Amino acid sequence: xxxxxxxxxxxxxxxxxxxxxxxxxxxxxxxxxxxxxxxxxxxxxxxxxxxxxxxxxxxxxxxxxxxxxxxxxxxxxxxxxxxxxxxxxxxxxxxxxxxxxxxxxxxxxxxxxxxxxxxxxxxxxxxxxxxxxxxxxxxxxxxxxxxxxxxxxxxxxxxxxxxxxxxxxxxxxxxxxxxxxxxxxxxxxxxxxxxxxxxxxxxxxxxxxxxxxxxxxxxxxxxxxxxxxxxxxxxxxxxxxxxxxxxxxxxxxxxxxxxxxxxxxxxxxxxxxxxxxxxxxxxxxxxxxxxxxxxxxxxxxxxxxxxxxxxxxxxxxxxxxxxxxxxxxxxxxxxxxxxxxxxxxxxxxxxxxxxxxxxxxxxxxxxxxxxxxxxxxxxxxxxxxxxxxxxxxxxxxxxxxxxxxxxxxxxxxxxxxxxxxxxxxxxxxxxxxxxxxxxxxxxxxxxxxxxxxxxxxxxxxxxxxxxxxxxxxxxxxxxxxxxxxxxxxxxxxxxxxxxxxxxxxxxxxxxxxxxxxxxxxxxxxxxxxxxxxxxxxxxxxxxxxxxxxxxxxxxxxxxxxxxxxxxxxxxxxxxxxxxxxxxxxxxxxxxxxxxxxxxxxxxxxxxxxxxxxxxxxxxxxxxxxxxxxxxxxxxxxxxxxxxxxxxxxxxxxxxxxxxxxxxxxxxxxxxxxxxxxxxxxxxxxxxxxxxxxxxxxxxxxxxxxxxxxxxxxxxxxxxxxxxxxxxxxxxxxxxxxxxxxxxxxxxxxxxxxxxxxxxxxxxxxxxxxxxxxxxxxxxxxxxxxxxxxxxxxxxxxxxxxxxxxxxxxxxxxxxxxxxxxxxxxxxxxxxxxxxxxxxxxxxxxxxxxxxxxxxxxxxxxxxxxxxxxxxxxxxxxxxxxxxxxxxxxxxxxxxxxxxxxxxxxxxxxxxxxxxxxxxxxxxxxxxxxxxxxxxxxxxxxxxxxxxxxxxxxxxxxxxxxxxxxxxxxxxxxxxxxxxxxxxxxxxxxxxxxxxxxxxxxxxxxxxxxxxxxxxxxxxxxxxxxxxxxxxxxxxxxxxxxxxxxxxxxxxxxxxxxxxxxxxxxxxxxxxxxxxxxxxxxxxxxxxxxxxxxxxxxxxxxxxxxxxxxxxxxxxxxxxxxxxxxxxxxxxxxxxxxxxxxxxxxxxxxxxxxxxxxxxxxxxxxxxxxxxxxxxxxxxxxxxxxxxxxxxxxxxxxxxxxxxxxxxxxxxxxxxxxxxxxxxxxxxxxxxxxxxxxxxxxxxxxxxxxxxxxxxxxxxxxxxxxxxxxxxxxxxxxxxx
Length: 1280
Known about the structure:
Elements: E1 29-34, E2 40-46, E3 51-56, E4 60-64, E5 70-74, E6 87-93, E7 98-103, E8 107-116, E9 129-136, E10 141-144, E11 153-158, E12 163-167, E13 172-178, H1 181-191, E14 206-211, E15 218-223, E16 227-231, E17 236-241, H2 258-261, E18 269-274, E19 280-285, E20 290-294, E21 303-305, E22 309-310, H3 317-323, E23 337-338, E24 344-345, E25 356-362, H4 367-375, H5 386-394, E26 397-403, E27 412-418, H6 440-448, E28 454-459, E29 464-471, E30 483-490, E31 508-512, E32 525-526, E33 597-598, E34 613-619, H7 621-633, E35 649-651, H8 662-665, E36 670-676, E37 681-686, E38 704-705, E39 711-712, H9 713-717, H10 726-733, E40 740-745, E41 751-756, E42 761-767, H11 776-779, H12 786-789, E43 815-817, E44 828-835, E45 842-847, E46 852-857, E47 862-866, E48 871-876, E49 897-898, E50 905-915, E51 918-929, E52 933-942, E53 945-948, E54 954-956, E55 963-969, H13 981-988, E56 1005-1010, E57 1013-1018, E58 1024-1029, E59 1035-1043, E60 1046-1053, E61 1057-1061, E62 1068-1073, E63 1085-1088, E64 1094-1098, E65 1104-1108, E66 1119-1121, H14 1154-1162, ...
Parallel strand pairs: 22-32, 48-49
Antiparallel strand pairs: 1-65, 2-3, 3-4, 4-5, 6-7, 7-8, 8-9, 10-11, 11-12, 12-13, 14-15, 15-16, 16-17, 18-19, 19-20, 20-21, 23-24, 25-26, 26-27, 27-28, 29-30, 30-31, 31-33, 34-36, 35-66, 36-37, 37-38, 37-39, 40-41, 41-42, 42-44, 43-44, 45-46, 46-47, 47-48, 50-51, 51-52, 52-53, 52-54, 55-56, ...
Helix pairs in contact: 7-15
């Protein structure tokens, strides 16, 4: 127990708060929301402005452009009477700079990005695009077509089968209303008496629509029963496309479904897409098959296939026999076919496929256009990849397929690679009956263009739910022309740790597009040797599709390659047969090549990036420099670059009222936000306020990602060296239980300690890179999914043969060193050790900068770790085997094991200070128990080894039950006595007052905060300086804040009230409510920057906010211009003739222009256009200029007229002399100087090499001349 002798108190004049006693210095404010606010429900891109839009279930659209540009636009905001409706459909209007959204309430919204709102208080009303119009439709919207730059109408379909047109330029509904065309077609078929025809109950629902990319007059509308072609000029449905599956044909289903296999079926239409030439379109169906149609022939499809099988609309007797579908037949078993990784391909016998959810037909410019793009060197133009050039040279296209997979297949986006369409050499005479609309030669040419020359896929961690392609610049062809990225939203991953609060479970991934061209032709499975005969046709054998020449179609003779590659273009195989390396071949178990990823914008925290918890950590400048140096030095050569978005401009707001002062902002502390996620990763983000102020325009993301610092627990647990640990076995058998409890960072030592819910403690330490980066790390990236590395891997991980966690009761070491698992190719946190203490869930953890770590567990036990070993130097309540200690230690027992207390621990704190009458600073651990007892462990160094002193002093006070915080302060300055390396060195050299002396001056002040009180005492056991008690409310958090050298104690109640107290006498200063309303609220977990008063409140994965207690001169929301970056809008694509060349449209007449389409759809009573966007009051870039200081002019009386002369304007200095640079500028300048020095050194070496070569050449020439002279002299000497 503490001694009761009274110690001297502090002088009454002691004041560490000073000017912060003024209540006007306190103002609660919201700085920024972090992450997204709801589940991802819609994706959209604008290639003209180079923007990405993400719609959420909360009714907010998040828009991202270049690194510093982003904004969150509330489309359907919640009200007091109802919650906000989620975003169902989202699209941009390229060329017209609009955002168009449809929410779940079927209300259509249109926002103009050319007009940005302005408000007197930008902190609460940030600059955002303004709403143009909104309209609530009377039915459920089922599909939205992508609007084009050439016209201004948005076409939508309703559940009742209608198609409507919304005039975006007028903000009104157009006069064009297309009724349920398929319902009329069904009624016509029923009236005709055709057997088996009936009407759809409730009317056929419209499911999708697609405008012809080269003829604006034709719109395809997909219904449950088929597809209708609508002619805008005629105002009628001109064609109907209906796909039947005859009895015996499997379609996308199974031969084993005897109830359906012998019936005629018409699977529902789920998706539509046009081939870029506008002559062929693909229709996805609900059974997983895809029907390809020529627009000129609505009688029957050109081909019906699944991802792996062709002609599934034809009955195959052999497959029926193998499936046992015939009567009086024993069921046979077909031979499994394998893909290139040895995975069996589900045969049509077993393939019950999912629907085709979405289709996109990607195309590429010709080789000449690609060469021009490759020659462009601007940052806004993405470099042309070899894959894009390969497709462009051959004129090939890619059909991107979402859905259509069988159970057990690896989830992902599948692609079929099609050759260019080659028209017949000469149009022959019609060889079919008069009812057929297409000659056989034409039909064969179309079919040949639909025979895949390759197949590939983008494997994903969980089944994909939606995707969009990001074009390089072209907004036509369904946003699928010359795409450079594939953005995918994923369904929830069941392997992730469960989250018991609202969160966004759908993740996002982005891939480089297109993939490498496949040179392995998939075998044509299914009924591949016959065509379905039509009227007047004969059954003929299908010959292989004629392949294009392996040489490009450009005038060059050889294959054109990019200058940084040495390989020549691979020729396309000429024979359509399975090769040993075919994608369907059984030979070779090759590891699948993971597709190269793009990094998504930093604030999309969804799916595996959902935040389970976060810590805001202010850092000293040297430590911060060490952490971010790698990201700055490798900014132009990232292993995983950011998604190539270049749109928008963001400028810091330095002109509005309350704007920050740049000079003061540079003095703010640097800080990082540490987040941990369900995939057992820890990620780091730069949240320094300087990112929102410097430079002009802004250049950095906020929060700024630091991917090189990411800690992946799974990477450690996959190592065979730790496979025996319970946590590693749990990772293999029950991965959702591997969940992070908390993360702690030592600010100077940069040791990151991770506690797991299962009780393990993982320690990592920051270290710089050693050696160069491996070459293959740039070329190929592994997404960390084990299912991609295993040939038989699927969505659910395989069950290992090792015993499950908990099934092996064998001995496991307490400390497992894992330094050898570190990778030093980049800067980052390297693994040090895993502590398996077997004490259950951790409740508290404290780290220090002197190598000591303490952890308290739910089993009422404590462990003290010394990382110099590493070793466990104290176990309170358990022994080295993890067993509970119930009796006091005997003399011959281990002094490191002590009996535990009958209370769990509330808080732990490391300090270097004196205690009581011992003024010698020593490392001490303050343990605050939940029942009000406090225990102080002292560490001493004995012969170079650190040990914990026996019989630690304790102090019990019921008012300290429920501890919240412990702070030990310097009695002179009020600074916290942190356990730093400098403090430990000073303590080792210190000779304090001998213990036992009564007259000890104050050497520390101990402040203890609990739920019901705050106490301050001198020297721990000295006189109580001050005390505050709470009767009607409870404290939830307590923080010690230092702002510009002035200190306060901040307490936050459980209902969201902030109480500020002076120091050291705890006099109340002010009270603030952490809400803008009148009602209090429950607060989330608070993590505070104790140097600035800014804090992050974590109330859930969808409610993470950066706020402040001192809302003065804080960074305001930046001023934005979404239209600052604009690419030129190309002209509407020209229709093609039957021969495939630009010209008049195949069906006669001039093509319809966008203006003509608008006139047809809008009707004669079209309202006037919306007023144009007003001109901004001032240029956007001027918002980033600090306000000029007003100069006082002294006017002297004079009678002489002033002489007016022209004054030459001179630009002012970019910065004031002696002004401090921020860390980012310093490190960028250092990197640039080093690069310049290296360039100069390289030039010098080149010059030296050239000089040496010239000198050698001159020496050789001189030697040759001398030799010639001597030869001539010799000859003439002989003659003479």
